[in-house]
Each structure stands twice: as C-alpha cells, then as structure tokens.
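Troubleshooting: if your tokenizer reports a length mismatch, compare your output against this known-good record of 264 residues.
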Amino acid sequence: MEPTLTDLSAYLRRTGYAGDIAPTRRALEALHLAHATHIPFENLDVLLGRPIALDLVGIEAKLVGARRGGYCFEHNLLFAAVLRAFGFAVTRLAARVRHRTTAVLPRTHMLLLVEAEGGRWLADVGFGGEGLLLPVPFGAGEEVGHFAWSYRVIEEAATANWVLQSRRDGAWRDLYAFTLEPQHTVDYAIANHYVSTHPDSPFVRMLTVQLPTPQRRLILRDRELIEDRGDVVTTRTLADGAELARVLQESFGLEMPPGIRLPG
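Known-good structure output:
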C-alpha cells in the first residue's frame, strides 16, 4: 500500500494552492506550478552529513512543517502522495540524468507519470533549476511552452527510452532518459544513498539551491548566483558568508544552518 499524506491542508498552505481538489488536468497543472515555485530544491542536509529520509512523514515534516526544500526523491515522493490524495493515478519512475554530460549515469532521478482526463503527463517537481514548471504531455512528442522555456518528451527507439528534452539556444537538449518500469520507494533507497553520500556525487561536492518562477530561475551553486530569464542569463559571485546567508533567506526562504561549510 502506498503511503498517504498526513496533512493535505498544510501542504496546500505551503504551496499557495487554492483550486479544486479533483483529478483534472487544470488541477494537475496548478498543483505542479505551485509546488515548483514555492518549495526550493536544495541539499543543505547532505552538506551537513544528515541522512536523507524517504519516509513520507519525515518528508512532510521537513518540506512542509519546517518549510525546507529537498532534492528529487523528497519532492516527488511528496508530490506523488499529494496527487493520489487528489484522486490521480500516479506511476513512480526512475531516470538517468543526461543534462550537461555524455556519460551513461545510474538511474538516480525520480519522476512521475500521471493520468488525467484520458491523457498521460510527465510530472516532475524535483529536477531543480532546469526542471519543469508544468506537466508535459507524454507520448506524442508535443512541444510545450513553460513561460520562457520549452520542453517535450520523445521516444528514443534505439535505446527503448523516453527522453525529456528542453529547448535552449535553438536546439533540443536531453535532460534525462527513462523507461516506464514502475518503481517502489525501496527502489530509490540505493540511489538516494549514493547521491547523498558518495564523494563523486555533485550533491556532496557542491551547495545547490534552486527555485524557479514563471519570470526567472534562480540557481545558487556554492557562492555563484545565476539568474536565468530564458533569453538572458546573468551570473555573479556572492562576496562572503554573510551575503550567502542573506540570499538563502531572502531569495529562497531558507535559514543558513550553523556550522555548514562549503565543499572545497
């Protein structure tokens, strides 16, 4: 049996969602946008050496109760439970990230396939700064605009994969590749352990905090602050720890944990 959400009302307040509680396409889109723009992607606990729990009660306590963020497993396990509470049929999947690499990586990303009004949609609120603001239609290769950004899901016949792509600078670029094999929470346990503890994991080696809005995507990597507006990307380096703490609080709604040290 899938775990159930303990406090849907608290989640809706956390994300600012005020629409109908019904398994409609409109609700799916509004829920996805609300989650993606209110709960940041972040790895502060990884850098503090704290274990990343995959139980729904712990995820709710962190992302909703403590008003923290998390990474893909935390975001999408929570979002899957919310969608089921709305009455959606949800299949949990796993993907190999291809963004910024040509290497074959392990399946360390979680995403969701959701049924709504006779169609299927890829939903993913846990990919960070390059990720989706809204669900993407699954199966037809249809290009969809998410404000200043465009996405599509295509079938890659040679590998039997499906691939999520984003369009940047006039070209389609792979974000990740996945199959339709359903995953259970236990299937994510090894991947979660790897990305939160292995020295080769980027989450162990670098602070990353990301939060998109319809107007801009704000991405913090260590002390590099990136603002992506689709057609214009600007970057600046934060001066010191005090400015870092201020940006975390003012731009991402996060408190700087005591004792944290940036890798390197």
